[in-house]
Design brief:
single chain, 345 residues, alpha/beta, Rossmann fold, Helicase, Ruva Protein, domain 3, 3 domains, five-stranded parallel beta sheet, two-stranded antiparallel sheet, 9 strands
Length: 345
């Protein structure tokens, strides 16, 4: 980005007044450096910092759709079963709706939803469905990849190769100050006790409505209001979380799927989507009813639907290969030929 482009973006960025004053002083220094005809290492650092500041959504936000019927339709479209979980989500959204209508209730804050359950049972997709129902942008921050609180809060600009933390990066990706941000696998943050304590303390600040309105990323070094962000957490279990953090969460246990539920999910939700992704036509792959139990559970027990998804992908890949080799145009999967399409059998 050139200086001229930076100046134009500064005018359009709606920066807070005191931050704008500071940025204008930086631009004067950049002008001076550029005019001197010499190379300054500080020039690249300052320009990169200005780029981050003007790229953040200081004032931009999306309108929120709090229509419960729409939310219910989205949940039913994306998820089979989970009646109690869906009901709890709708209750949560109903409270948000009433709070938005009743201005006198704005002083109270709803707890942060935390979906707890085994891998592959749809915790992440539930969070995405909430964002879809609300009409908000969605971003995912994986805590399983976070080794220290610095990765959440960013690094001071004085350090070499400093950059913002994952939260600020998520906000820049969405381009709005009120997205839905999924803090995924919060129980899998750093395995070192001391570092995990720092991460838990940072998460406590981020999720606490009394503190997150003035969240400071060490790189940005200026308070950013996170109070409009809808945070959702997921975890496999709560054993590694601090008591103070758990107190801020509304725990929703996600049950494992039965084999019967997986069959319905496979037929009605996964198969049409995977067939389309594989480039097949709808009538080019037919799976007979009696085959589904074997596709659902070929080896051992899986609480979620990841193995089921992998098996359907494996079948569609084999069908696609046979079509391109001229071995047929339509394939019916039966108990007799299943092993030909699914190697685990």
């Amino acid at each position: 980005m050139t200086l001229e482009q930076a100046k134009l973006q500064i005018e359009q960025a709606s920066l807070p007044k005191d931050l704008l004053t500071s940025v204008e002083e930086m631009m004067e220094r950049l002008d001076h450096m550029k005019g001197s005809g010499e190379y300054f290492v500080e020039y690249d650092s300052l320009m990169r910092y200005v780029e981050w500041l003007v790229g953040l959504p200081w004032e931009k936000e999306d309108p929120e759709n709090l229509d419960l019927k729409n939310a219910q339709a989205v949940l039913e479209k994306n998820h089979f079963g989970l009646a109690e979980v869906k009901e709890r989500i709708l209750e949560y959204l109903a409270v948000r709706n009433l709070r938005s209508q009743n201005k006198s209730s704005q002083g109270t804050h709803a707890p942060v939803l935390c979906f707890v359950g085994l891998q592959g049972i749809g915790k992440t997709t539930l969070a995405f469905s909430i964002a879809e129902a609300l009409g908000r942008k969605f971003a995912r921050v994986s805590l399983g990849a976070i080794g220290s609180a610095v990765q959440l809060r960013g690094q001071a600009r004085s350090l070499p190769n400093a950059e913002p933390g994952q939260l600020i990066k998520a906000l820049r990706r969405t381009g709005v100050k009120n997205p839905v941000i999924l803090l995924d696998e919060i129980d899998k943050s750093s395995g070192e006790v001391g570092l995990r304590s720092d991460i838990m303390a940072t998460l406590l600040e981020v999720l606490d409505p009394e503190q997150n309105a003035t969240f400071i990323d060490y790189y940005i070094d200026y308070p950013f209001d996170l109070s409009q962000v809808l945070f959702i957490c997921t975890a496999n279990n709560l054993g590694t979380l601090s008591t103070a953090l758990v107190d801020r969460l509304e725990i929703i246990q996600i049950p494992s799927y039965t084999d019967e539920e997986k069959i319905v999910i496979g037929k009605k939700y996964l198969l049409p989507k995977i067939v389309a992704e594989s480039g097949l036509l709808e009538n080019q792959l037919i799976i007979e009813e009696e085959v589904w139990p074997k596709i659902v559970r070929p080896l051992g027990y899986d609480a979620g639907v990841r193995m089921l998804r992998r098996n359907i992908y494996a079948i569609t890949r084999r069908v696609a290969k046979k079509i391109l080799l001229g071995e047929g145009t339509t394939f019916r999967i039966t108990q007799e030929n299943l092993k030909e399409f699914l190697a685990s059998w």
